[in-house]
Amino acid sequence: MLAVQQLESGYGESIILRDVSLKVQPGQVVCLLGRNGVGKTTLMRSIMGVLKARKGLVSYNGKNLTKKSPGFRAKSGIGYVPQGREVFPQLTVYENILLGLEASSGKIKEIPADAIAKFPVLPAMYERRGGDLSGGQQQQLAFARALASRPEVLLLDEPCEGIQPSIVDDIRDVIRSIKEEGQTAILLAEQSLDFVKSVGDYFYILEKGAIAWEGGLEALSDEVIMRYLTV
């Protein structure tokens, strides 16, 4: 479904990612792990096209997206919840979610009830401005906005960062429900090992901008964790 092959990317003269390859299959929750500063967000931004790849290939359902715009990728079926959420502070909650519909290229005219059902606190906040919400509420809003277009692949970059435990639990439940429905694959970049182990099917570990390890949950041993993830 989503494939990255020998990707090289970075900022200015700095190369952050080197020769990165990974795959996300339909219905999977694939988790991207690594210490701070190893390139997880750079990889997410490169997959979405926010950051241009210098070398390599990003493909989706067999189509080469490497030189396509973020908007094209979104309309192709890739949703994105960036690190820091990036809600529009002056727009209402309702208007923020409506913007997510643009990725459907007009195929979806109204906010899908099933997307909002995953975040039952949001309808009561429809008239509030996005910038007035708490961090956890903004995270739920960004998540709902991405789901509004019914993407086939969802990129989640550090969704638990700075979020209170109760909303972390809510986000875990949403990811599990998406996984059970089997309609949307997820690529999840996250620092919390306990969180990713509770939802993930397959794992990649980044170290110094390259894939240092990959495997299933049963292979994510204490030795691997000590070597690549322990600070």
From TrEMBL:
Xref: CDD domains? ABC_TM1139_LivF_branched
Quote the InterPro entries the UniProt record gives. Answer: AAA+_ATPase, ABC_transporter-like_ATP-bd, ABC_transptr_urea_ATP-bd_UrtE, BCAA_Transport_ATP-bd_LivF, P-loop_NTPase
Q: Which Gene3D superfamilies match?
A: P-loop containing nucleotide triphosphate hydrolases
Residue ranges occupied by any ABC transporter domain in the UniProt entry: 2-229
Q: Which PROSITE patterns match?
A: ABC_TRANSPORTER_2
Q: Which UniProt keywords apply?
A: Amino-acid transport, ATP-binding, Nucleotide-binding, Transport
Name listed for the protein in its UniProt record = Urea ABC transporter ATP-binding subunit UrtE
Organism field: Paenibacillus sambharensis
Q: Which gene encodes it?
A: urtE
